[in-house]
Amino acid sequence: MEKPIGISLEIGFDNSGSHCNLLKQRLQSIRPWTKQDGKWKIAPYGGFKFDLTIGTFRRPIPKFWKKEFWSRDYITKEQNTNPWNSDNYWFILSIPWFPSFFISCCYGKGEKQPGFYFGWKTYRIMDLSQGHIVECQLKQYMTDRNDKFIFDNDNNPILTWCNINDLGKTYTCLSASIRDDLIED
User: Fold this and answer.
1) How far, in Å, are 14, 36, 51, 53 from residue 46 at the CA level?
2) Which residue, 49, 78, 85, 97, has fewest beta-carbon neighbours within 10 Å?
3) Among candidates 142, 104, 144, which has minimal Cα distance to 120?
4) How far apart (Å, rounded) are the C-alpha atoms in residues 59 and 132?
């Protein structure tokens, strides 16, 4: 399955109030959307989103036994322990037809948009015409969070757990986060 399918219940807030929508799931979207002036846009004041999905679950499984994985100073060790952007994974767990859900709740406008999400979010392995291959490209983590993606001498991305056949495909993966900046562009 190259792309998950599902439905979304979204309650989004904008200048004119709240809007409730039941629609086809928007992939790779954390925040709810509203229809403004006939166009769909991310709800500027946040809201609630609940997705029901069926798709391929795919995730590199980390090496749990490494002590760096459990370190409080995880960011500085992340280059060695993050299974997504390093070659440091145990195996790839892949389940072709996987039913899942996703919940997010966020509020605020501008730079402070706190919120949380939990469930199986969708992610896409992008090809170079769309930018980097974020989910499976080798990356050097920097303490200032301005991470650098690594390319070979011919300016091709160095892939970690995925291969060239995965480019353009969308998968689901269990994820959870509480943030003070749950912002999507």
Assistant:
1) 8, 14, 16, 22
2) 97
3) 104
4) 18
- Enumerate the domain spans of the chain: 5-179
Residue count of the chain: 185
Per the CB < 8 A criterion, the answer to whether 126 and 147 are in contact is no
Instruction: Tell the residue number behind the tokens 């200032």, with chain if given.
Output: 144
Residue 155: CB partners within 8 Å, gap ≥ 6?
none
- Report pLDDT digits (tens) over 90-147: 899 999 999 999 999 998 877 778 889 999 988 888 765 555 556 788 887 777 767 7
- E strand or H helix at 147, and its extent? none
Q: What is the number of alpha carbons within 13 Å of residue 159 lying toward its C-beta?
A: 13
